[in-house]
Automatic annotation (TrEMBL):
Residues 7-17, 37-47 have a biased composition (Gly residues). Residues 18-36 have a biased composition (Low complexity). Keywords: Methyltransferase, Transferase. InterPro entries: SAM-dependent_MTases_sf. This is Class I SAM-dependent methyltransferase. The keyword Methyltransferase applies. Pfam families: Methyltransf_23. GO terms for biological process: methylation. Residues 1-50 are annotated as: Disordered. One of its GO terms (molecular function) is methyltransferase activity. The keyword Transferase applies.
Amino acid sequence: MSTGTGTETGTGTGAGTSAGTSAGVATDTGADTRTGPGPGTGPGTGEHTGYRELLREAFVRRYEDGADSWSEEPAMRELVPLLGTELAPGSSVIDIGAGRGRDMELLLAQGHRVTAVDLVRLPDWEDIARRYGAAAAFEVGNFADLAVDRVFDAAVDNGVLHHQAPEDYAPYLANVRQRLRPGGLLAVSLFTTAEELAEGVLNRAEDGRLSRWFNEREATELLAGAGFTVTAVRTVRRELPGLAYLLVLARRDA
């Protein structure tokens, strides 16, 4: 069972937001710092006043430079089908860290209404808005500051949670829960490894961005503590050797 050493090659979705942070890709080379096992471990995780801005700037740069290779990663498109196993027709969905809107497009094509949230407004959104009209809504900014006075049937997090500072996991999930109706669905994709991890691993890239590799037990316990019941778990291997995504589907408790 390998937790990996050396370079960080994790990816997430777009420059998505969270309890103050974003999702995104970390494809940096060079050594990173890996710590485990607990979600509260890791050098400097308590010093995250500037971390949220660090993430925002990192993913703004990546989109501006066209360095968002994760947007087209095949494994990233496996989360919406998992959500679809339990999502009712014509549902309202909030896509947290929507990036270029790839998951949003899949959901809209299935007849759902989708609100995309991201730190960066991307040109792709204009095309989606033209094609889907009022079914597609867009919010630029931090998910924690989202001025939406309604709840949704489901939330998609395709790479946001695992980029949080560990002390932000609980506040982030509490915010997601608040945006969902009782019984609402949360589909979340988390970094993991192709071989089962005994314990989660916290990674720090050279530029300071955090990413966590979760195992199934840790993810399930984290969601349960936040008021969710896990209903399905899948591991999807990635093209990057030794890495995978842990896809988790959960329902908000009443």
